[in-house]
Amino acid sequence: MPSLESRRAVERASRTIPALRIVALVAMLAVLAGCATRRPAPVEDRAGARPPATASAPTADVRPAEAPPVPTYTVKRGDTLYQIALDNGLDYRELAAWNGIENVNLIRVGQVLRLLAPGEVPPPVAAGTVTNADGVTTAPLRTVPPVAEAPRGVALPPPVGGASPPPPTTVAGGNVKTGPKAIKEPYSDQAVRDLTLAATAVPAPPSEAPRVARVEPRPDTSAPVAPAPPPAARGGDGDDDEKLDWLWPARGKVVTSFSETANLKGIDIAGTSGEPVVASAAGKVVYAGAGLRGYGKLIIIKHNKTYLSAYAHNREILVKEGAQVSRGQKIAEMGNTDADQVKLHFEIRRLGKPMDPSRFLPPA
To answer: Against a cut of 0.85, is the pTM above it?
Structure first.
């Protein structure tokens, strides 16, 4: 029979073994957790160096051209529809129709009139364009894209025309050079002979294309010859609306020259009562009457979208509104209505702005 001490030793061993098992289990769990959270070691690719990433060039902020708002005019005290139409180079009847005005003699102070036909879109204006009070338009300069540079290790194509490439250049720092690189070869008799031949060799001249004799056709004298085209019209260039062949509307002495400060901005031609007044250029009569203060009996002819002309102080008006007149056609008789003497007041307006007629009329 075992002794008391041996039984106690067995009991202590039985209690110690489960505790050791628990400690071992906790240690194993801790090791597994550490393995799960351990980061992998960085892998270095030594097979070849990758070129550094280049930042992409910033995209230019290109904004589409914005269409300007429809031009308008706010009626002021003393305005008439005829004067507003004249100052803006328009037909007063069209201006009335665009704004729903039934009585052309009745407009209200503060009334806003549109100066463009409904459905007609004004020409677009680029972003940054500014128009000042004098009508001068300024636009931003066009930016030139930067010259692209060839990446390192890529040769640029040869210049057009067979020009020789530029000489090697040295960048700041003296480390980077562009141009052919010298190759060092070991000394040998063959290398010396090759260099001597290369130095004494004469380059072959560039081949020239064969010249082809140009045979001019002989004119056919039996065919009719077309007359030479007429000379360019005075008054402008570059646009059909600028090409008008102006002539003097009346004979006489110019007694008043053009002035920006005058009430009526044009020239005055003196004459005798009843002398003919002719159309300075072909066009459509958009006004014939005495509704504009200071002009007397007045005729306004619209020649195109850009120009119109005015003939004031007439004794008699011989054309009606809406009539098409030709260049040099008699349209009125000289008089002194609303004037201190017999004279013709003549104006040329470009987009409604008075211009100096001497710039457009032929030499007297």
So the answer is: no
